């Protein structure tokens, strides 16, 4: 079909070059910064990234191999030779 251009309107809520009035960012008070850091340290620990499926399977496989190796070593040590 035929494409008809849509009427556009300029945004006036910009900062910098396209703005009618340039506004500067307000500086954050040092007290506010310190209080934010102390709140974050106390309340929320950093979340670790979730492992990919491939990594989870590799870790699971390694655990399985360690268990098998432990069983083999256990039987080698405690199982009688003549059985």
TrEMBL record:
<protein>
    <submittedName>
        <fullName>Uncharacterized protein</fullName>
    </submittedName>
</protein>
<feature type="compositionally biased region" description="Basic and acidic residues">
    <location>
        <begin position="34"/>
        <end position="46"/>
    </location>
</feature>
<feature type="region of interest" description="Disordered">
    <location>
        <begin position="1"/>
        <end position="49"/>
    </location>
</feature>
<dbReference type="InterPro" id="IPR039146">
    <property type="entry name" value="GPANK1"/>
</dbReference>
